[in-house]
Amino acid sequence: MTLAPPDAGRRGTAAPPPLRPRPDTVVGPHDGPAGWPAARVATAVREGVVTATSVLEAHLARTALHDPVLHAFVHLDVERARAQARDVDDAVARGVDPGPLAGVVFAVKDNVDVAGEVTACGSLAHPGRPAVRDAVAVARLRAAGAVLLGRTTMDELAMGASTVTAATGPAHNPWDPQRSPGGSSGGSAVAVAAGLVSFALGTDTGGSVREPAAQCGIVGLAPTPGLVSAAGVVPYARGFDRVGPLTRDAATATLVLSVLAGHGDDEHRADVEQRLGLGSPVLDGLRLGVVRELGELPNSAGVRERVAALLARAEEAGAELVPVSVPQAREALEAYLVVTSVLVAPVVAPWVATGRAGAHVVRRHRDGRTLAAGSPTLERARLVRRRLRLALERALEDVDLLVSPTMPTTAPLLSALATPGGAEGITDPALAPYTDCWTVVANMAGLPALSLPAGHSHEDGLPVGAMLTGRRGGDALLLAAAEALAETD
């Protein structure tokens, strides 16, 4: 099975028009500051055109209207958010610059520490102790003037791709509330796509930022490992985890990353922006690699069509499409599951010991302990990982970015993902690791990757995501290319 129809790469090939939002959707353009890009909000607040308080109230109004159905949030701290917004407004009134994210409203996944709140990780097995301090990422965003609204729904301990395993119940896709938003950062994606917040933080170990971004029709960035501090974030598999933003557009992701990047408290923003090389979007002359082996995976016709159309637009804008072969990609998913099972076992052990963890968490813990006992399967998986990393590094010596679908399917029905038996009754392949077949490649190789909207499937009208994967440290190019591709739509 090929990634694109035979004529999809020819210059000038007409792409079918993307479908418009469904009648029952709550996404799409919004009036007022809840629908503005983050940069416009921050500029308007800093210049006194609008207040941070009015921006927050616009988001609160949408949240009150839509979240009873969508269930993006597991916790809202409205009064604390209002206090933050007043602080921003007071700074503006005193002539003090509140920062590059002044008044921009955001949310965080339920595995990210917020001072004074319990980091539950979507589980009933949480320790019940409030966090002493904000995670570094949260502290940076607050210091830049952003206003934190609440914590979002996630799969229990980040084990899942639908939010069905969340102890508080699943989030619902704003394009069709009967469907999954993806996971494990599904609530964050829902909050952004529905305009409840301007951006949100998620975590990505094998696709948990990019997959929900694809299913909800937004942008999701898994940065280069180490670029964004994970201090104060509950880990899943060290060496694979990243903290990244989910946003409605690539420009907002660029702005948020410019605040999040780096670790030193005395690091100046201009230095970060210079180091990231944030610049103007451009496609002309860009070499985009299409991995042949990944095109053999069972992608739906609607996904293939939309990614092919995106590639055609990129070529029309001057990019060069280059076939790339990485045979090790066929083995990436199986190896990922083995290696991460071993890494996650000691992390979840205290949660399992409470007797309140979900059955899927207990099973993953048991499997990881078994594999860790000198298993040849583990050694084989580690070898695959090393070979995959080397193969991708070689491929990226010849091209600037790799392009693929983010997921092989669009969002599945929630009713197909869960039964009264709970996690043990989940049988739909969309919840199985199959959906990770594209995304785990970047995590296995330690490379940055980004999902961007590629239109809507002709089969069901739901969003399709395309994924860009870059060289280690090449986050700025990913973001610039995503901005440029958005301009061709």
From TrEMBL:
Positions of the UniProt region annotated as Disordered: 1-35, 168-187
Domain of life: Bacteria
Domain Amidase: 55-479
One MF term in the entry's GO annotations: catalytic activity
One Pfam family linked to the record: Amidase
InterPro entries xref list: Amidase, Amidase_CS, Amidase_dom, AS_sf
Signal peptide: none
Family named by the database record: Belongs to the amidase family.
Protein name per the record: Amidase
